[in-house]
Amino acid sequence: MLACRVILFLAWTLHGSISCINLSPCSLLHGASTNMDVHVLSSRVLRPGDPNSAPSKAPLTVFDRFASNIYIAVLFAFSPPTPPNDALIAGLSKTLLLFPTLAGRLDDSRRLRRPCLIVGGCGGGALVVEAAASSNLSDHLPLEVSPDFQLLHPSPASAVHVFQVQLNRFACGGLIIGATAHHRVADGQSMSIFFTAWAQTVRGAFVDRPPVYDQSWLKPRCPPHCEFNHWGLEFTPLNSSSVNQIDVDPSEITNMLIRYSADFIQKLRRKAEGKYTTFETLIGHLWRKITVARRLEDRVQTMVRVSVNGRTRLKPPVPNEFFGNLVLNAYPQATAKDLIDEGLPGAAMMIHEAIRRVDDRYIQSFIDFGELYGDEELVPVYDVDGNVLSPMLEVDSWLRFRFEDVDFGGGGALRAFLPTWVPFEGLVMVLPGFGEDGGIDVFVTLLEEHAKMLRQISHSLD
Ligand SMILES: *[C@@H]1O[C@H](CO)[C@@H](O)[C@H](O)[C@H]1NC(C)=O
Ligand SMILES: *[C@@H]1O[C@H](CO)[C@@H](O)[C@H](O)[C@H]1NC(C)=O
């Protein structure tokens, strides 16, 4: 769940139940802390393409089936002036012709041997909701993460469409686009390609990176064989009577955004002897700080599921425009004591080594696993998590998504790009910063008492 795990794209790997307020047309919803009131004006379903065409059925790949069975919701905020809703919706209709799977429908009914996506025909479609807020967008900037975010996108809980979007128009003309997409249809990398294409279409620009649907890379070896234990790492073993699920009342879970300046990140990198990427260094830092904030006992084993984009690791590589899922996890782990004792360089090295192990051979073994066991009921490990991951963490990077290319024109600027509120403990999303000096924003979900501690130590270089 974690790797692309998102531009909005929450790594597209958020898991857990996303509880949302059900937006029915014309309901008036009042937000609490930020006083955001959002009024739904209309909703419609876009069904691009010929309704008389014969629907086609595509079985989900083993990578789709590894994606968690949830929607990922992201928010883009644009200051005015922005194009009118009609232009955004007309552009969306056109763009969906290039991305037919986003208007498809999932069929995972038990009678099917393998779950599949049905594209074309008269079913499916993408939901478009238009909404208005009586405040000015500037009243809410910089956007602070809040449960109110759930007012800004259609509810995943009652979703019937794999892609749903809400256009929230503020009094000033500013716009927040809140979009949800089912993770089994697209990972974060894929969604970044989609949002860029939608924005280019609205601007009347050429779509410079159209999606690639070719799956010729998904080829098992002959005979297929697994060098790694994918039952257990990615999927729960058959007939396992699981597990150590931890569930708390969602009100005990909070979301926070930690801002790291470019200068602070340079300090961290120097501390890690400059040997690791910014991402590895920053995750090493946060893994240690969150372990302290959670007050894990010395001998507790803590693990990070780091989502890794498989496209660049396969040989030959798959284009980043491949649309669908191609993400696996790296699994660095250590006891809490070792993690703290070995300092930042040690933590960054563990992450680096684990990511390095997700190579062509590992991914090929996973492809072969899909060939050997595709007819079984595959339950991704995410689906048996409770809403508390501790002592584990799940990490997604949205740093490589070209979010800055998501420009619908009109002259307004992208002012924020965030996941929605997530009532699930243990997620870390690394986002491009919107501060003065660039930097990086990190979205973290923790129990409230641990979040309080993390706020105090998040910038300590110890
Ligand atoms: C929004 O901003 C405009 C221009 O500054 C101002 O006239 C108006 O009162 C503001 N509206 C609200 C609801 O604050
Ligand atoms: C799982 O349980 C089913 C039904 O009880 C049984 O047919 C199947 O052989 C079991 N599979 C494994 C791997 O034990």
TrEMBL record:
PROSITE patterns: PROKAR_LIPOPROTEIN
Family: Belongs to the plant acyltransferase family.
Key word DNA-binding present: no
InterPro entries xref list: CAT-like_dom_sf, Plant_Fungal_Acyltransferase
Name of this protein: Tryptamine hydroxycinnamoyltransferase 1-like
Taxon lineage: Eukaryota, Viridiplantae, Streptophyta, Embryophyta, Tracheophyta
Signal peptide: 1-19
Keyword annotations of the record: Acyltransferase, Signal, Transferase
Entry's Gene Ontology molecular function annotations: acyltransferase activity, transferring groups other than amino-acyl groups
